[in-house]
Amino acid sequence: MKLEIVSAAEKRKGARRDAAVVFVARPEKREPARFETVPEELRDAARNSAPPDAGNDGSVWTVPLGAEGPARRLYVFGTGTGEEMAPRKARGLLRSVVRTLEKNGEGSALVDFPFALLRMSPAEGRDFVARSLLVALYAFPRYRSAPNGGPKLTDLALAGGRGVFAGASPKELKEGSAEAAKVAAMAAFVRDLGNTPSNDMVPRMFADAVKAAARTRGVKATVLGKKQIEAERMGGLLAVSRGAAEEPRFVILEHRGGKKGEKPVVLVGKGVTFDSGGISIKPADRMGDMKWDMMGAATACGAVLAAAELGIPLNVVALAPLAENMPSGTAYKPGDIVRFRSGKTAEIDNTDAEGRVVLADALDYAKGLSPAVIVDFATLTGAAVVALGLEASVLFTDHDDLAKALVSAGERTDERLWRLPLWDDYKENLRSDWADFKNTGGRYGGSINGAIFLKEFVDPKTPWAHVDIAPNAYFEREHAGYATGATAIGLAMTLRWLKDRSSR
Q: Which residues does the annotation mark as catalytic?
């Protein structure tokens, strides 16, 4: 897929495109549609052909253009918005644009988007819209007997309207295009990992996939097998994997973009490639969704791979503990006591609270890397979804500066975070008569209890954040501009945070 970000002058250059796309607002139904956001050379064509619902949210019409126009056809989409447009609404609108162009067989298009409507700076808006267009093109036809042959739309140019790119040099625009394409390509890789069914994405297959991706990006990849995991005394990872036929893996990815000896940023991701719940088995309804229980690992690994590809000048390490959680005669059981790599013990109250059990060993392993900061990602709790719905991931940290930085990055990429407490008061919920603590804390405050458990394995002197991505790591149906399935939400936010950190 070719994506080009162009200035007002450049958009008139080159070959004539199949389609041009513009946007018209109508803040109030009783008011006429507003055509100010349409480029002057297309304004009359759009206005003279406007239907009665022009500018309404969801309205679209097509206008044939003359031989001298920038494209063969003009598509006019209504925004229904006046002064501002929320990024989430914009992403849904852009998905509609891509789907319409695809349906009509358009191979190339110029999208003239009114960036002034976005609640973002021009540069961040540019990146967001470019990424949203590419994300909208994502498809996963791998398992269809008759694949559709991929997207018909293969050439996109993005202009910003109202001269928003007028001050940018051709070099800056080219770099913006390249970066958006790289981030979108990595998001597609992360989504592919998640959408692949668990029979083709067991721990060793996940490890092989990210190792191959690392090889082409200059990232050092180390994969620990079962014997090495045993040598590391990773009792949590071993316990969760014990009931499965597939052996666990522990992946280490290293991007050495910073100064030699500089403390690394460590990203940790939960990698349960299928979660049946184990002996505490889940209900059969929608258990198939549990192929997505490795999206934390996919996010962490994808961020390191993308950081290398973008040349972010930081040392960044990803740790991904990988396992299947299955019931069998060898599976770990409620009442078992597990001893972790750190030496701490936990009474297993529920085998379906396995994510924190595998992460505990990874967080302890991270201590040995002398990290500057640790951020972990996990589809950890259904309680997070109950608390926030689908619109934000949950953030836990005791470090205010880290919280501010991550929340800011999330706001600017529309991958939002909402902070919940990590108060020590919640420790009582994990009290055990037989071990240092239990792995669950009862019905109330489920996502907090999970975070409190993880906190036990982190050095309090090291800034650490836990991001529960269960609300939006995948969607059961199309939502907020994303297709059904894995979203890669968290990737763009993490890369924005890493770039911010590298420029301090």
A: 282, 356
